[in-house]
Known about the structure:
- 11% of the residues lie in helices and 31% in strands.
- The protein is mainly beta.
- The protein folds into three domains: 116 residues, no CATH class; 142 residues, Sandwich (Jelly Rolls), CATH 2.60.120; 158 residues, Jelly Rolls (Sandwich), CATH 2.60.120.
Amino acid sequence: MRKDCLLGVVAILATACLPGSAAAQVTFNKDVLPIVQQHCQMCHRPGEVAPFSLLTFNDARPWARAIKTAVLTQQMPPWQVEPQYDHKFSNAARLSQAERDILAAWADGGAVEGDPKDKPAPATFTDGWNLKPDMIVEMPTEFAVQARGTIEYQYMLVKANFPEDVWVKAAEMRPGNSKVVHHGEVWVLPPGSKWMANAVPGVAYPATQMPKVGQDDIDILGKFNPGVGAQGFEFGDSAKFVPKGSDLVFEVHYTAVGTPQTDRTKVGIVFAAGPHTTRYFTSYGPTARNLVIPAADNNAEVVSESTAMTDMKLVYAQPHMHLRGKDYELRAVFPNGESQTLFRSKWDFNWQLGYVFTEPIDLPKGTRLIGISHFDNSAANKFNPDPTKEIRWGLQNWDEMSNCFIGLVFDAKTDPKKIFRASGPSLLPTLGPGPTRATLTDTSTK
């Protein structure tokens, strides 16, 4: 049989395996809509970060060919974890091969709408939220986003004045203007904190005017990145703790889009009954503030390390790098000497995803968490602002970072200032050889 005929037979057989027995019988209402409801609509709906909606057939039909290309190349839905670690995460967003085939067949078959009776019930969203908030705190004043140029990170103190200790089981940071909000955090500012102590509520302060006292030991209530929305904090008996009298600090990274814009970002909070025996706390994790990336290096390795000072559980991880980032690996070296890779992922500055562990990872006291990141500072990296420069730690996109926000669960009586200490290469004034893949025994397959 001729090769081209054989390929044609294979294609026919593959199509025959699809629902409806032929590509032309794949319809939006019956076959495609359930997939996009589960995997796409949280971003592809009005007011969200995606550039177009997928709520209805009329929304999706013009994008049929683009959808096929995006899912076959696995660009969508965004999910950077290497496939062998997918099973570790409850929010793994990778489509199955059958789902990819259905979406491709729908495009190839003319993107047919199908019988309206086949449509599943619409996915429900609460006034645009991905959760149903008990309390909404919004920036009290608009921030004016300039049309062009670099915008420093902005910090705004918002008086929340929680009248009593509260426990929070979920929160969601939502941009007021998703065109210009690239990412951000909402920090819990407890009474007596020296950070932002003299700030005027409702005034946005650029990073260069911020006090030197950092917020490393202050909890993050809500985070926003493209692909990261509502976050839950209930793992066993855990929840976020917000002390009586706390306020909130909105930290927002804005991006100019060519026209003047304004933004009033907000956070939605869902309360939990308290008190709780364990606390969910968001930490920076291993942090390479001493990173040095040589000019023109296309695979610079940066290693950072933190050591657990108490027993705890790891339930969430979200790497953070900038425009030169390539990939990130998180290792745990346990007190008994066993080393385990918790995940490896590619890096995409436009989709800074967070990963929720299906089963919490026990981190006994003395466990070393090690972050291993790689950077492309060469001219071959089309996103590289300047391959001729040696790069060090900094807030702006043309600088770099290497850390991993981690969600931890530990005894509610434990002081969060004492859960980790920097160790290993993170203690060095400049990046030294430190532990690398060659010196860390990996038993992650156990």
